[in-house]
Amino acid sequence: MAKLKLPVPPVPPQLKPLPKRPGKVYGPQTPIEHAGEAAATAVGWIDERTSLSGGARWMMFRKVPKGTNWFYTLGSATMFSFLSQAVTGVFLAMYYVPSSTRAYESIRTINNDVFLGEFVHGMHKWGSSMMVILIFLHMGRTFFFGAYKYPRELNWVIGVALLILTMTMSFTGYLLPFDQRSYWASIVGVNINGTGPLVGPYLSDFLRAGPNFGATTLSRFYAIHMLLVPGAIAALMGFHLFLVARLGTTAPPWVRAKSSEQLREEKVSS
């Protein structure tokens, strides 16, 4: 049996270019019009060779079920909080030194001497808490709305993996200031991980980068926080969004689907 392929959604009328007025001279006249024509030509040249507009329309212009409300924006809010963490983290990494003797001083320099350093550091620090709150709210909405059921089970599994990676990123980032509070709190967290069955002791040795908590532990946490976890989150988030676009959005549980009789009556009347 051949698989039915859905057509690409059409371009909304609001985005289509308006027809030119009668009597208007064809072609750009002002420098701004010339710049706009050059940009449109460049975009058209790229789209002709990559066909990205079809994929963009497929991702953005989709039908949503009746009853969709603000609860459905929690996933997008979580994604934008991650992007905020990535951008602010890049700026912080320009001044941060992952050394047991210089880490604390580099954080102090960022907060006291760097232009807008305290603002960026505050966005990154409190943004991590906001991301954790948003991802829990998003998963709660998914659970109570029944959006984890067939055929979206794989998307739920990916969401659980994203939750674990988010908690891992928060845990590894907590040590980076390398002050007394973060140092002893990280020791407690690593020891708690060591109590897990089978893999617990190996996980603790991996996080400590050895049998004891030392200078190499900070480098290990920094590499996990900056390179390993963000890359995995970005990859899984892309696959997560693809499945959302591929499978569609679940209607709220209080919105009842039309019965076959109602659909038959609408078909006959039309």
UniProtKB/TrEMBL annotation:
Domain Cytochrome b/b6 N-terminal region profile: 42-253
UniProt GO BP: respiratory electron transport chain
UniProt cross-references to InterPro entries, sorted A to Z: Cyt_b/b6_N, Cytb/b6-like_sf, Di-haem_cyt_TM
Keyword annotations of the record: Membrane, Transmembrane, Transmembrane helix
Residue segments, region Disordered: 1-23
Segments crossing the lipid bilayer: 70-97, 130-148, 154-176, 223-244
GO CC annotation, single: membrane
Comp. bias regions, Pro residues: 7-16
GO molecular-function terms, A-Z: electron transfer activity; oxidoreductase activity
Pfam families per UniProt: Cytochrome_B
PANTHER family per UniProt: CYTOCHROME B (PTHR19271)
Protein's name according to its UniProt entry: Unannotated protein
Organism, as annotated: freshwater metagenome
